[in-house]
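Section 5.1 Outputs to date
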Amino acid sequence: MRKDEKNTAIYVANEEYVPWDPVEPERNLLRAILMSALNDIQKGGVLEDDAMSFFLSEEEDYVFSFKAICDFLELDPQQVLILTGLFERDGSPSLSYRDRKSYPVKFV
């Protein structure tokens, strides 16, 4: 290569560079908490009860509460509850869970 030519290979390799997101570790932790709670619901017993309490909690101020996690991950909490089968599309508790236990839930 001559002195007056530019080495463009360096610039091409850097075009695929994706900057590191400093909050990605926190997002991964919060995703892991949600996934753990989803798995606990399927296991039954005490783990299921704890997971149900987590999902149906009205707590918003605690950083690891369900609503705070959804807010941080930009998820709709009611949509997550519908996808987990805890709520119907009309916002009422799912029949399968309503028969087993009654939880005081209020969604606005």
